[in-house]
Each structure stands twice: as C-alpha cells, then as structure tokens.
Amino acid sequence: MTINSKEIRSFFFSQYFSDGIRITTGILLPALVFLEFNKFDLGIALSLGALCITVIDNPGPATHKRNAMGVGNILMFVVAIITGFARLNVYTLGLEITLLSFLFSMFYIYGSRAANIGTASLLIMIFMIDRDLPPSDILAYSATILAGGIWYMLFSLVFFGIRPYRAAQQALGENIADIVKFLRIKADFYLPETDIDENYRVLVSQQIQVSQHQDAVRELLFKSRVLVRESTNASRILVLTFVDLVDMFEQIMATHYDYAEIRKKFKSTGVLEEIAGLVHQMANELENIGFAILSNTTYKYLYDFNPDLEKLKLKIDAVGKSESETSNLVLKKILINVRDLNLEIEHIFNYYNSRSSKTLIESSKNIDHSKFVSHQDYTPHVFTDNLTWTSSAFKHALRVSLVCLIGFIVARNFSLGHHSYWVLLTIVVILKPGYSLSKQRNYQRLIGTVVGGIAGVLILVFIPNGDVQFALMVILMVGTYSFSRLNYVVSVLFMTPFVLIMFKFLGVGHLDIVKERIVDTVIGSVIAFIASYWIFPSWEFEQVKESLAEVIYANANYVVKIAESITGKKVTTTDYKLARKDVYVKSANLSAMFERMTSEPKSKQKNVKDIHKFVVLNHILSSYIATVASEITVKNLHTAQADNLKLVKKSIATLNEASKKLFGQKVEFIGEKAPETTEVTLTTADNLLKEQLGFINKISNDIARVTDNIVIS
After folding, report:
1. pTM score, two decimals?
2. Is 421 helix (H, G, I), strand (E, B) or coil?
3. pLDDT tens-place string over residues 10-33
C-alpha cells in the first residue's frame, strides 16, 4: 500500500496525532515537574495514575469523557487499595486477580467506553501487584494514583474546552477520507480491467470503515449539546456537513448496476473509462475539501465539473444514436448519479466558503438528531441478565479471569525478573471477546515487541547521550499513543523502545530488561492464544444467524418506507433516514463479522461461501432500495401504481419469511391499496422504476434461497 504526502500531512492534523500529543504531555508532566522538586517517586506515582486513566480518554462528547474518567478514577482508587492489601498474601492476591478480572471484563456489556473503564481498573491492579508497599503507605499511594488520574482528567477536559469544535472537525475530515476511498472503489467497477468479485470484497471492507467512522462522528456531534444546540455558524456547519456526507454516502451506495452487463454493452465505446475518470476526479476534489476541514484551513477553488458533465452527456447521447440496438438509459441514470454527486460536493464546499452565516444557520434541515444516536442502558439488570452461558460477554469474562489466574501462577514460578506483571499485562491486552480479534492482537503484540525491543537496544547501545535518548523517548511516546487506535502493531513497535529507555532512566539494566520483556510477552501471548481457542471460545458462526436476521429485518423495514409512500402515507425525512441508517449499520456489522469469521480456523468457518454470497446480495439489495426509496419517499418523482405496490409487498413478504427462519423479527405492514389514479401514460422513468422494484424482488428471493441453505446446513 502506497502512502502519499497528503496522507502523511493528514496524519499530523488528525485526532490520532492530537491524542498522542495530549496523552504524552499529560503523563510526562507530573514526573518532570516533581523531578525538579526532588520528589521523583511522587511524580512517577502521579504519572502512573494518569497513564491508566488515558485508556478511557477516547473520542466522544466532553460530558461522556468526564463521566467515564470520573468513574474510572474512583474504581482505580478502590482497586489500588484492595490490591495493595491483597498482595500481602499470595492466595488473597490470586483470588483478587480472578474476581476482579471477571468483574471488569463483564463491563463489555455496557459498551466500549465502559469496557475501557474496566481495562483501566485492571491495569492499575496489575501495576500494583509488584509494588512493594508497607500497609501504612497503601492508602497514601492509592490517593496519589487517584490524584494523577484526576490531573489527567482535568488536563484532557481543558484541552478540549479550549477548542470545542476541533475534535469534530478532525473526525469529519477523516470520515471524508474514508468516503473518498469508497468512492474510488466504486468508480473502478466501470473499468473493464477491474475484477468485479475482488472489487466487491474491497468495497465491503471499506464500507465497514465508513460505517464505524460515521458512528463515531454521529456520537461526537449529536450527543454534544454544545454542537447541536448552539446557533453559531461553526457548530451548524459541522452538523450540516455531516448530514450531507451521510446523504452523499447513500448516493454512492445507490449507484449500483449490473457492471458485467454494462461492460458487455459499452466496453467498446470508451464511455465507461470516461465515467470512471470523472468520478476519480470528483474524489480528488472531495479529498481536498476533507483535508481543508481536517487541517482547519479553507479550500477556495473548487473545480467546475459542469463542462465535463456536458461532454459526458454528449458522449452518452452519441452512444445512444450509434448503438441503435442498445438502450443508453442506464448510462443516463449513471450521469444523473454523477451530477447529484457533484451537487453534494458543491454544497459541502459552499458551507466553508459562504459569506452568509444566517443562511447557513437557517438552512439546517428539520431533523431530530437525537434519534440517530444509540443510548446505552447502564442499569444493573443488564449485568445480571448476561450472567448466563448463552452470553458471549459472560464466557469472555470467565475466560479472562481463569487465564489471568493461570498467567499469575506462571509468572510467579517462571518469570525471568522483577516485572512478572508483564505476563498479566499481555494477557489483558490481547484477550478479546472473539477468537479472531484475540489472534490478530496476539500477532501484533509479538511482532511489535520483538522488533521494538531490537530498536530499543540499538538506541541504548549506539546513542549514549542522555538528552538525545530523552528526546527519542518523547517521540516514541507520541508515536505509541498516536497509533494505539490507528495501527496497534506500530503502536507496540514504538512502545517497546520507549519503555526500555524509560527503565534506563529509572536505573534498570537495559539489556536484561529487553530479554525479560520479550520472554514475558511471549509467555503471555502463548497463554492467551491457547485460551482463546480452548477455554470457552466464542466463534462467529454461533452469532451470525442473529446478525443475518437483523440485516434482513432492516432491509424489510427500508422497503416498507417505499410501500408506505406508494399507498399515500407521508414518510418523514427523519423516518426515512433512520431506516437507511439501520440498514447501513447492520450491513457493516455483518460485513465485519464475516471478515472476522474468515480469520478463524477452517473448521469453524461454517457456511462461509453462502454467508459471503449473502453479504454481496445484501449490498446489492440495499443499493437498489436506496435508489428507489430516495426517488419515491424523498423526491416523489413517480406516480403511484398498483403493480408497483404488489412487487413491494412480495419483497416484504419474502424478507419477512427469511427473517422468520432465522428466528428474527418480522416487519408489520398493513396492506393498503395504492391511491386511485387516472389512466396515465407511463414515462420511461416509471418503467425503469417498475424494473428496479422487480429486481429488488428478485434479489430478495435470492437472499431467501441463500438463507435456506444457511439454515438447513
């Protein structure tokens, strides 16, 4: 994969690099400040508290950060005290490790932020295991850790408070970059040399990226009172940009055609290459706008695509005249899609180049944004309801608790030095609810530790100057925390030499510590790998039917919006967009699950071919539904026809039956008649609509057949 200069510059403007700078500063400052007052041990304890609380400092609304880090600090304080006393006896320490590992691993049921609170609590437990403190000092040391956590929480909140819109800008810019990649993959379908099946695989993988990033931006924007309720130009522009981005992504998703058939008909005309080239050009312009948003600058000169669009229209018209036996209607539809894409790009460009603030503020669409974000249930019954063998979270928590106990016993008996907690640390970081995620994290941890260990030794041996080593340590720290969410193997590669240099400054022999860290990491990795396969494993095929049913239900609900419009019922923009969001989120979840399944052992990859076929058919179905739903429910371009309603009803019934076989929900639709219409001559567009509805029905039947294969096998 090639990395261009713009991607490098984008990284330095991104929230990832901002995270690296903020976290590194927040951790280092206490130690450096108290070093000046000859109280380095106190500074180290404060930095330890800051280090653990940074795990919770993930992107999101400031109130969520504050609440999560507040709860995390309290739990860290309590865990530090418990561990300080429990470590006085090896049996009580083993019992504590087992119980707390189970408890905090169960936090996964409350979402990713709660899971991070659990991880921070486990980290402080692990770091306290080898902290040799007399009972009289435990409370004071725990209070110091709490003070370090509170320091970082305040530092982080002030950091975001100074520039409240910056995080949203960065998230939007990064989301645009994801959509640009998706658009380019779509454009490649028109190139005759592109392998259609392989391009679908890449497309589905990129769709996961777009969906995950949009969820993060949605939470950041719509759960933030500052951004949604303020009437300032800056806040409204951010919300409007994201709303248009989601609409743009829908348009790109909706531009699905039978690419093999299109190539067969129009390959010799050269028009397909022109379409692909024009879409790639538009992707470049969108990328430039995204970079301007990310870097907080203004992109002033948008390329005018209207002459190119007019040339493409003339070329398509010429194809229609020269190819008398072949209709160019599909090319005209593609031209409309490309024009719509150009309009969306112009809209986003104008948000950042308009002189009229009032117009921008008043142009906000009447949509209840609060409905577009999920709300986590934190009630105790969620915890107790998951204390069952059918819960993957319960099995994960049991696995972590047992493996941590095993790791503790192994570390006590076989560890090389005085940092046996590295074995437990490796286990906690590697073990994830699913096998594939644990396997991936395992490889990344091992590779990063070994390569980083070699790099650390080279730095310590060949660069003896203490000032240069400190500067390198700071750079490596920034790299560690910048890549922790972006690329874990790179993060670990930076982390290992930074830890080795840090231990050198603390007076620990660097060569012995390298060997100890690598061996302890290998021990922890081996234990975690074996456990993820043999101890209460969680395989994707056990949950895939539920995910399939959710996708089918979401698509059926999307089709219902078409049916309601045909029968004359008013479908609001909010209802339509909620149905659309549900389809895209559920589809991305299914695609991510399929990707994880393909990395599991072959013996655990059940129905993988049929599920892959389902994923592709689902993408095609949702694309066609998006096209039709937009025209009927939003643009209202077609007259109501009884035949159309009949086709829609058949599709709903077929999808409901498929969902029922997977023990999923059924969509309720009261079968009203289409409104009476006088005899009218159907336009070409009306005939195309009927053809598209027929294709939706055909794909629905194909999905039903694939579902049958999955159910009976």
Report:
1. 0.88
2. helix
3. 999 999 999 999 999 999 999 999
